[in-house]
Design a protein that fits this description.
mainly beta; 8-stranded antiparallel beta barrel; 8-stranded antiparallel β-barrel; 20 strands; about 15% helix; about 45% strand; elongated
Length: about 300
């Protein structure tokens, strides 16, 4: 998109002995402009913009980008996939309508339904990558463009399973295999997961099945951790670190958007849990941790390791 300058100079000199006059003919510079693409056209070139959260620079945050997995710009409407549940189907893959936008030169004005108005500066880094810069907080986010038919929704889902667990108010046990050794976890009927940095971020309950979510009494608290299994894409490990009671270790599989399966290697028992009370993250109030929360988490982890 740079301007190509084509310079052609023809210098003709003719010295006439009779008049002593030098005549110079110069052809003027000719500038040819390459076609320019507007910012709005650039944003609409790709249907899905993936928020590469790990590349974020700066000490501040843009709340609606911090919480989003993807965003889209469609005819003045700003969309976001803030949830893993329904990703790929919500809004035909674009996500939820969360505001509107306008462009001027390389400035992007976004009016978010919850977070308010933001004036952002866009820099194109490559054909499908842009930097979104907020001058107020001196913070940059990096977005990668895709079309819906070549965007790997499953990869995003499995890379962020820990967020998926947080998208329901609670998980209720609906199945326990007949095989397997009797163990204490057989008595657990509800699991509740909160976002990292929220203190004790998981709770469990032995209340009977089928009661109202608000009436569940959680008997135990602790921290949970989700990790990859080498060379296995669609299964994870889940560790429940109970306060003062030790750990329970599982292999976690996702059956569908609202059901998970836990295999307990110690007892060889299989459990299935169904999510109850889906949380729609249209606002930035819940979901992925903010920049400052991530820093507190890293500091807490460091302090824990240094003890």
């Amino acid at each position: 998109m740079k301007t190509l300058k084509l310079l052609s100079v023809i210098f003709l000199s003719s010295i006439l002995l009779t008049s002593c006059v030098a005549e110079v003919v110069i052809e003027e510079d000719v500038y040819v402009e390459e076609p320019r693409i507007t910012l709005n056209e650039l944003l609409n070139t790709y249907e899905i913009w993936y928020v590469d959260i790990e590349r974020t620079k700066g000490n501040g945050e843009i709340p609606f980008l911090q919480k989003a997995f993807t965003v889209s710009f469609r005819n003045g409407t700003f969309y976001a996939n803030n949830n893993l549940v329904g990703m790929g189907s919500n809004g035909n893959g674009y996500g939820l309508d969360v505001g509107f936008y306008d462009t001027f030169r390389m400035d992007l004005d976004i009016s978010h339904d919850i977070d308010g108005a933001y004036k952002l500066v866009i820099t194109q880094l490559s054909d499908n990558q842009i930097e979104v810069y907020d001058e107020v907080t001196n913070t940059s986010y990096f977005l990668i463009g895709y079309q819906r038919n070549n965007f790997d929704y499953d990869q995003v889902f499995y890379d962020n399973i820990h967020y998926f667990l947080q998208e329901y108010e609670t998980w209720e046990k609906v199945f326990t295999s007949e095989f397997g050794v009797l163990n204490e976890f057989d008595n657990e009927n509800y699991l509740k997961f909160s976002y990292f940095g929220s203190g004790e971020n998981f709770k469990s309950s032995q209340d009977e099945n089928g009661i109202h979510i608000d009436d569940i009494f959680y008997d135990y608290t602790g921290h949970y951790e989700v990790n990859d299994i080498v060379n296995i894409f669609d299964r994870k490990t889940l560790t429940l670190d109970y306060d003062y009671l030790g750990n329970e270790f599982f292999e976690l599989s996702v059956i569908n958007d609202s059901k998970i399966e836990l295999f307990h290697p110690t007892s060889e028992t299989v459990y299935q849990f169904v999510g109850r009370g889906h949380i729609q993250f249209k606002s930035s109030g819940k979901g992925k941790p903010t920049q400052n929360e991530k820093k507190r988490i890293k500091k807490a982890d460091f302090m824990k390791l240094s003890k």
